[in-house]
Amino acid sequence: MTSEEFRNSIKRGRLQLSITDMFSYFRISLLLFIISIFCLTTGFQSLTSAFYEDQPLGIIGGTFLLITIIHYYFLNRQLKIRSVSTTVSKEEFQQKINKLAKEQHWKTTTISENFMEATLKRNGMNSRSFLDRSCGERIYIYKDTQTLYFKSMFDLDQNIEFTISSGENQLNEKIIKSTFQSS
Fold first, then answer.
1. Which is nearest to 96 in space by CA: 82, 79, 84?
2. 139/176 Cα distance (integer angstroms)
3. Which of 6, 25, 103, 124 could form a disulfide with 135 if both were Cys (CB 3.0 to 4.6 A apart)?
4. How high is the pLDDT of residue 123?
């Protein structure tokens, strides 16, 4: 993601993902939605029979649809960009961000005078299993005149089907906020 793309995300209030990242990020919601539609239409044969009769497929489909909506809502909410007011200069920003990246073992992929994108690879499970802990994050930090915008999210380039978050993104965001909020 470039500095310009992140600024556009700031205007919208949430991180804007590419089409491939969006499919990867919402993959569980998409799978649940397909299952619910399949159940509600009884295998794409009829919509009315699943809804109006007390059939198990209609109940299962409705349950999956409800779970899909709730899951999508929470994932979409997690894309919200965080911000903190700060008075650091661009030079201080560069010093603090470089120090923070070194302390947290972030690998910077993009850096400019007011933007940084970094990745963090975590030591997850060694085997390529179907269900894994988060093995890495993407961190975005953008400095405006009086505001610092930041977001940490699961690194979608890891190609892990299903991940379990242990609060790594919240920890990254808390560290960024505490580093710049005191300034």
1. 84
2. 10
3. 124
4. 61
Give the tens place of pLDDT for each residue, 24-57: 888 889 999 998 888 877 666 665 554 555 677 7
Residue 174 in tokens: 């808390």
Closest among 144, 148, 123 to 133, alpha carbons compared = 123
Short-list 71, 96, 76, CA closest to 84: 96
pLDDT for the residue 124:
54
71 pLDDT band, cuts 50/70/90, is very high
Closest by CA to 119, choosing from 170, 178, 174, 172, is 172
The token pair that represents 83 in the structure block:
């911000």
CA distance 156 to 137: 8
User: φ and ψ at 3, to 5 degrees?
Assistant: -60, -40
d(C-alpha 132, C-alpha 125), whole Å: 7
Rounded Cα distance between 34 and 23, Å, is 13
How many Å apart are CA 107 and CA 98, to the nearest integer?
10
pTM (two decimals): 0.78
Place of tokens 């899951």: 71
Q: What is the mean pLDDT of the chain?
A: 80
Compute φ and ψ for 90, nearest 5 degrees. Answer: -65, -35
What distance in Å separates the CA atoms of residue 178 and residue 183, rounded to the nearest whole number?
A: 9
